[in-house]
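Subject: Predicted fold for Iron compound ABC transporter iron compound-binding protein, 354 residues

User T.R. writes:
Posting the sequence so we have a shared reference for the thread.
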Amino acid sequence: MSRDSSQPRPRQLDRRTLLGSGLALASLVGLTACSTGSRDGGGSGGTTGATASSTPTDTFPVTVKHALGSTTVEKAPERVVCVGASNTQDFVAALGVVPVGMTKVAWGGNDKGSTDWFDAKVSELGGQSPQTMDESDGINFTDLAQLSPDLIIAVNSGVTKEEYGRLTKIAPVVAYPTGPWVNSWQDMQRLTAQALGRAQAGEDLVSQTEKLIRERSEDLGGAKGKTFIYGDVTQSLGFYGPSDGRPRFLTELGLSLAPVVKENISEKEFWREWPKERADELRSDLFVAAAEDDAQAETFRTDSVLKTIPAIAAGHGLFLTSKQDVLSGYSSSPLSLPHALDTHVPAIKNALGA
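User M.O. replies:
I've generated the structure tokens; pasting them so everyone works from the same file.
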């Protein structure tokens, strides 16, 4: 839930956690919205993707299984509250339901504590902006309860069993599919769709968004298939593993996670610190990391230690200076991914000279 001021990471796991951003999405199915709502993703003329706005098609009650148990939703929810990472509300809004409450997007968000792609979807649906809750110190149970939710969506969160128990006293809760912070956007979208009685619309969103990613991956040209490391050099030298959203996005896009990462981090780990004296062993075609601004990016490129990383030494370091752009890929959703594709594809090609 919480994020630090540098590059967020879930509080239950470590200090490095969440990022996300997005682009406009064209309607797959256009029906009605519930509560409030919005979509799109970040600018006209960009990539368009798939959204499904729909009324419930499944018969209630519906029972949804997740990592912390099973939840029965008795009737179509009208007051949904989202808890956790910045893409949780995206999964809800993409289905035509605007939540009444959501966690404030503290890292990479806009001045409303939201994201541009989510706000655009809310506007498209003719809804009102949800109330944002500050979760920098954990779940805000008081503010959440005051919203009188009839369903709490926490598919991308670090909700503990104890917190889950407290939340269920307020409303039915749908937690993450397999574990905290490590689920694919596809699984989180499907689980959200099931809880909202829109299972088929969820499947449509996933298949259409995956098609969009495949189509845009062809635009990588000679960069497709190149190896990469997604690192973090703001606090210490290290890299993210395959379960983290950052490398997961680039892998879906058509790049290949570098062998040094695969060999030194388990599938369940999302981050591994690396000794600076062994920086030259971080071999890949591309090294990606976030930077606060262009000045910091240049500092990284000329740093005596970082210069020994082969990709940076070869001029193939990609330092992303827009938090929104990083967030769009890291905290992926059908709403954010068009923005991520429009910003990352040309940046990757440029960094690799492809």
